[in-house]
Design a protein that fits this description.
Elements (H helix, E strand, L loop, with lengths): L2 H7 L7 E2 L14 E2 L2 E12 L5 E8 L11 E4 L3 E8 L11 E2 L5 E4 L1 E2 L4 E2 L5 E7 L4 E6 L4 H6 L3 E7 L9 E2 L7 E2 L1 E10 L1 H10 L17 E4 L26 E2 L4 E8 L5 E4 L5 E6 L2 E2 L13 E2 L1 E4 L4 E7 L38 H6 L8
Parallel strand pairs: 1-18, 2-5, 3-6, 5-13, 16-19
Antiparallel strand pairs: 3-4, 6-11, 7-12, 8-11, 9-10, 12-13, 14-15, 16-17, 19-25, 20-24, 21-22, 21-23, 21-25
Length: 370
């Protein structure tokens, strides 16, 4: 197994880390930009991989620094949303554009392309839609989609509901069965290094860029634009200027964690959470309702979410530690119980000897659990 593959396989599973932080972290929110009017620019930059690779890529920005994935756009249900796109890609890249899945979009400016209106090099185009339905959606280039999305021109759109049911801290869809305590976004994608290198070799030329019709073979698998272990670095880490979003969900036992999973690449990604199944709420922004009682949800409990290219899944993860057979808090039998603790496990010691600190620090990756 080569180094690239090893790094990629490290992303094959996701574990939710227990948080010992103050309760204010129970309000964990997704990094993004809020509002109803956005200005995005398509630009080139080099992203980083943990094996030391510097990979030529394209992406969107709402400022001066290109990022991958593009800024997460967070809007309110019912809002009229306007996005202006400027094309600062190299001239050889040609036109670019954005399509917003699940939205009825009106476009102006630029020139008509195959899927929507496009911005020529140095040009601009504007998109407008009403965010009628809450949910998790994807946006991406609608021009030469196979190439431009591969290069990094994609991001997430989150439409928050206009109402929150009584007793909810927050709700994904304004429905009582979609309440949650914390939310995290997972944008899954991959990189075919050969394609990126072919594009890099042609960007100084007259264009159009041609990468041929060869087989697609990805070498890097990304979550929120990062490969493990960079996924654990803080959001906005200065060593990853073009990959600002981290992927380290944390929770308290008993929290309801909303996972917004977006398939932004060409491959299906099996997205697995350790410790418990997830309850699927919606796919592609559509709630899964019971056929016999439309007031109840009927999404499946899944051990692994199949994240499909171009699709999104919203799911709730809960975990209390019940049934472990040992006390995950390390209590003695006389200690008070935690709110969500299993009485049968209270005060029971962990049934293994934990390794020395030096082994944990200098050995392989180790979570601290048996």
């Amino acid at each position: 197994m080569n180094t690239n593959t090893s790094l990629a396989v490290a992303l094959g599973t996701v574990a939710l880390a227990l948080s010992a932080a103050a309760p204010t972290q129970a309000e964990a929110a997704i990094d993004g930009v809020r509002g109803s009017s956005f200005s995005l620019t398509a630009k080139p930059a080099y992203i980083s991989a943990p094996d030391g690779a510097s990979i030529y890529s394209w992406g969107y920005t709402d400022g001066t620094t290109m990022q991958l994935p593009g800024p997460t756009l967070i809007v309110q249900e019912g809002a009229t949303v306007t996005i202006t796109l400027d094309n600062e890609l190299p001239g050889a890249a040609g036109n670019t554009s954005i399509v917003f899945q699940g939205q009825e979009v009106t476009a102006s400016g630029g020139e008509q392309g195959g899927l929507t209106r496009e911005a020529a090099p140095g040009g601009q185009v504007t998109y407008t839609f009403v965010a009628n339905e809450p949910g998790t959606y994807q946006y991406h280039s609608g021009t030469d989609v196979g190439l431009q999305v591969e290069m990094g021109l994609f991001g997430a759109l989150i439409v928050e509901p206009s109402t929150t049911p009584a007793g909810c801290t927050a709700s994904a869809y304004g429905h009582a069965e979609t309440c949650f305590d914390r939310e995290y976004l997972f944008i899954l994608s991959e990189i075919d290094l050969d394609i990126h290198q072919m594009v890099e070799a042609q960007v100084a030329g007259p264009g159009p860029i041609d990468v041929g019709e060869g087989p697609f073979a990805s070498e890097y698998w990304l979550m929120n634009g990062r490969c493990a272990p960079d996924t654990m670095a803080e959001s906005g880490d200065l060593t990853l200027p073009h990959q600002p979003y981290n992927t380290l969900p944390m929770m308290h036992p008993g929290d309801k964690v909303l996972a917004r999973v977006v398939g932004a690449g060409k491959e299906m990604h099996p997205f697995h959470t350790h410790g418990n199944h997830v309850k699927v709420l919606a796919r592609d922004g559509d709630l899964i309702l019971s056929e016999t009682n439309s007031s109840h949800l009927a999404g499946p409990d899944l051990f692994t979410i199949p994240s499909l290219p171009g699709g999104s899944v919203d799911a709730i993860f809960e975990w209390t530690g019940e049934g472990l057979g040992w006390d995950m808090y390390g209590h003695s039998p006389d200690d008070a119980m935690e709110a969500h603790e299993d009485p049968d496990d209270h005060g029971k010691p962990i049934p293994v000897d934990l390794p020395e600190l030096s082994q944990m620090a200098f050995g392989g990756f180790y979570s601290g659990s048996p």
